[in-house]
Amino acid sequence: GLTFPELFEGRVAVSGGRVAVVDGEVSLSYAELNVLANRLAHRLIGLGAGPERVVGLALPRGVSMVVGLLAVLKSGAAYLPVDLGYPVDRVAFLLGDADPLCVLTTGAVAGGLPVGGVPLVLVDELVFGVGDRVDDPSDSDRLCALELGHPAYVIYTSGSTGRPKGVVVTHAGIASLSAHQVGSYGVSEDSRVMQLVSMSFDVAVAEVCLALLSGASLHVPGGTLSGDELAGFLRASRITHAHIPPAVLAVTPDVLLPDLEVVISGGEAVRGEVVERWGRGRVLFNAYGPTEATVDVTFRECRVGVDGVGEWGLIGRPIVGARVYVLGGDLCPVPVGVAGELYVAGPGLARGYLGRSGLTASRFVACPFGVAGERMYRTGDVVRWRGDGELEFVGRADDQVKVRGFRVEPGEVEAVLAEHSGVAQAVVVAAGGRLVAYVLWWRGVVLMGRGCGGLWLLVCRITWCRRLWWWLIGSC
């Protein structure tokens, strides 16, 4: 297998003169993008970046984000995406937990970052001299040889205890993901791929791979789009391939998009209405995969006129290189039609959770179906095999939910709410595509008085939904 830098540099050798990334009026060829990434990569190596180190990316959407991502990977380090829309406390936690060597950012953003003692590298202030190296970094330049088992990125996902967990994903599954994309989605050098989602969502990895490892062009909008703005960007940029979550597809208007050939959706149920609207005149795929794998594990082509309300839970068959097992409590495969927990194995499996060996051991368990020492990941998703060889999603084995494609542990939100000194209890549920929290305050309104021939005590406690809960203590 090949690492991400090797795959990208191989593509540069073939498609050097073709457009690689487009950001508004800015357009870079593969050769130009490679030169910028190489310059920055050599700078990072000089700062100590390399295999088993983490470099933060706190960059606005655009060319600088793509250059920064490539530079980190070329240095041999793993990139940690920091969403600039996150609350300050969450950003501080991510940087404190991941302990990056440095953070790539811009002067406009740097002032708002709670970096503590983490050094900042301001991309917009870098002055590249004539003597700067622009060749592809090699293992002789790096701190040590870059191998498939080294981390490529760290993405944080929700944790049931209130503490987000960083998933460490290696280079080992990148080649399989790219081979799946080229073979299944028909992407080519003439394709135009949209970069829609936040870099803190692992689907962004799929977007970058879909474009830059196939010779296509990656088109980056200036912000997060939905509805009319998304439809306008798809039309104006003549996008041919796009990853769009079902919830976003559902609110995007029906407009003529003659160039759009392939839509990949997932992260939550792709329902019949979405299939009917977005599967006509193009190909719509439903892709499934936990953050603990290299983006996708299974996929299926949605069928207009066939996939309706009763079939929105179908998640298809494994992608190239992935293996899936539906197992019972004894880790034995269950028969076709019987529900069991979904386990995932293969080169795309993540290494585990950053700095959390106990949690890693509980979720990444020994695989009895592979070679000695191989592991598989317990997804917590309950599925069953159908007679046609496809997987059908049934539910969860725990309380985890999906909201607009993002995996959320209600327990994490409940734990944060419970930190407030006035909160006695908190319950969080998913409803109507959003999270709803019910909070019971410790401090309520206490009313005392006399009446009906005796003392009465009325206690009022107010919840977030502004309903009043009354308890009558004592009696008239």
Cα gyration radius (Å): 25 Å
Q: Would you tell me the overall average pLDDT?
A: 87
End-to-end span in angstroms? 79 Å
What portion of residues is helical? 25-40%
* Overall SS class: alpha/beta
Using DSSP, what is the number of strands? 28
Low-confidence stretches: 443-476
Q: Main sheet?
A: 10 strands, mixed
As a percent range, the share of strand residues is 25-35%
Characterise the protein shown here:
By secondary structure, this protein is an alpha/beta fold. It contains twelve helices and 28 strands. Strands 11, 12, 13, 14, 15, 16, 17, 19, 20 and 21 form a ten-stranded mixed beta sheet that branches. It has a four-stranded mixed beta sheet with strand order 2-1-10-9. A four-stranded parallel beta sheet has the order 4-3-5-6. Helix 2 packs across helix 3. The radius of gyration is 25 Å and the shape is globular. The N and C termini lie far apart (79 Å). Residues 443-476 have low confidence and may be disordered.
Explain briefly what this protein structure is.
The protein has 476 residues and is of the alpha/beta class.
Notable traits:
476 residues, 4-stranded mixed sheet, 12 helices
Write the layout of secondary structure elements.
Layout: H1 4-15, E1 19-23, E2 26-29, H2 30-47, E3 54-58, H3 63-75, E4 78-81, H4 88-98, E5 102-105, H5 107-110, E6 120-122, E7 151-157, E8 165-170, H6 174-185, E9 192-194, H7 203-212, E10 217-219, H8 227-236, E11 241-243, H9 246-251, E12 262-266, H10 272-278, E13 283-288, E14 298-301, E15 314-318, E16 323-327, E17 340-345, E18 352-353, H11 357-363, E19 364-366, E20 375-385, E21 391-396, E22 401-403, E23 406-408, H12 410-418, E24 423-431, E25 434-441, E26 445-451, E27 454-462, E28 468-473
Parallel strand pairs: 1-10, 3-4, 3-5, 5-6, 9-10, 11-12, 12-13
Antiparallel strand pairs: 1-2, 7-8, 8-18, 13-14, 14-15, 15-21, 16-17, 17-20, 19-20, 20-21, 22-23, 24-25, 26-27, 27-28
Helix pairs in contact: 2-3
